[in-house]
């Protein structure tokens, strides 16, 4: 999704801006651009191609300056086209980039048009550029303060003015923005430099001195100095924000022997799980942060808020929490929860789950829960420096490492590991975990990396199935109990990267409607662990076979489900108990991956999707 980089420096900052965009590329974008102050005027390069092309354009055109801003755009208002790409200019004087969505852009556009402003794009961003220009009377900081007071919606902006070289002003509300302070070391080696970015990762290797701007902040960057102003109603007051030392990873991980990042990340799961569980010697609430014991003691229920794949890890956790920790749990899609009337209970542990920690809907749902008086908050998140971690009292940081592929894989399995630990910690505090049970669960968790290796070795068999899937346009996924969310995740993976329409159902629900879809043309993927529901599931498989449906079953070794005409079986290892979902999701990830490869889609950057969804 959209990315921002901006800087003032005594040196040329264009290579740093472009490199920053490259580091944000994995988040998904459809155009990119850079603007600088050069020769007393604004200069810009924009492209609907890759950032590498933008780099060549800036080099060929000799774009160089110590003041500039850059952006990767993920289209919301207006098609992905050069004229809609950021930075946007206003009357050759103001240059501006923006992440987020301005809700009152129509009203502002009409107002500015009436004042004679001409719009070259369909974006809401151009409205902000003209608004800043309209309010500009010689001081960019004042103009930006005035402009943001008029905006409704979410924004992170970076802006500079032709008449004030060596100055960039930023502001944020609802979209992340960080300030970087230059150092003697790093790629730029300029302690007077100041940077803006939507994510610390954009500045990896440039500076590790980061200020996390808070909601409503406006920031003024000049050579060797910066000021933060905090919003207080309709006014802004100077404020101090702590400079933190943050080791951001570049994300530009090598592909190694893999064809795509997604494949690499699927195969990284044994290591990601080992890293996530490293240092877990025993179950204790303090794994989730200081004060977790008293929080866990004071809650009677769990409310999980998440989106997409992360919501499926939450759905899996609901089964664990209710059966092992005996605590009622509800799972809500964040974009729904934030807008519906619900009945709050202050004795609720609100758990957000997020790979990126920046998902706008999940952050807003968290805020909503807090506004309803639910103050016990915990996040399971893969980015320690993210807004989600900063906003929640307690956290478990999964150590999946940077996930580049848009389709989440290793983040999901490590979320499950974090959620299982949460289940055990709550069970312990609530008196439902004996020492022996704790030891058994920990043993099974520690063995997961080895068990996963055995599942990954099934790849050649999955490749053979993928050839058949690549010719289909629809697929059904079935699972029961703990593995129903895994079926949902398998269907989501298939649709998002292969563009095959896929739906998942709890297998017992089939006869209540979806069975009507089953014909010889409909592949039915089934997750078949050897759990208490196996016999019921076998009956559901019969229902499909009786209608001519073709079954593709991932069956635990001890299930005794054998291949026969119309029934294809890939044998999983023996049943892995409560942690079985972490194993069963892997062949579904591989199936989606190889089907997408066979169809020739852009696996790591599927159409219309972004890695980090920072807009509503
Ligand atoms: C699907 C996928 C998305 C994300 C969702 C939430 O493969 O990755 O469904 O899970 O956008 O993102 P996070 O976890 O970053 O909050």
Automatic annotation (TrEMBL):
Gene3D superfamilies named in the record: Glucose-6-phosphate isomerase like protein, domain 1 (3.40.50.10490), Glutamine Phosphoribosylpyrophosphate, subunit 1, domain 1 (3.60.20.10)
Active-site annotation: 2, 611
KW Cytoplasm (keyword) present: yes
Domain annotation Glutamine amidotransferase type-2: ranges: 2-224
Keyword Glycoprotein: no
Top-level taxon of origin: Bacteria
Subcellular location(s) per record: Cytoplasm
Enzyme Commission designation: 2.6.1.16
Catalytic activities: D-fructose 6-phosphate + L-glutamine = D-glucosamine 6-phosphate + L-glutamate
Leading EC class: transferase
Primary localization: cytoplasm
Residue stretches making up the SIS domain: 292-432, 465-606
Gene Ontology MF annotations: glutamine-fructose-6-phosphate transaminase (isomerizing) activity
Keywords: Aminotransferase, Cytoplasm, Glutamine amidotransferase, Repeat, Transferase
Protein function: Catalyzes the first step in hexosamine metabolism, converting fructose-6P into glucosamine-6P using glutamine as a nitrogen source.
HAMAP family associated with the record: GlmS
Summary of subunit composition and partner proteins: Homodimer.
Record-given protein name: Glutamine--fructose-6-phosphate aminotransferase [isomerizing]
Protein's organism: Ideonella paludis
Species classification: Bacteria, Pseudomonadati, Pseudomonadota, Betaproteobacteria, Burkholderiales
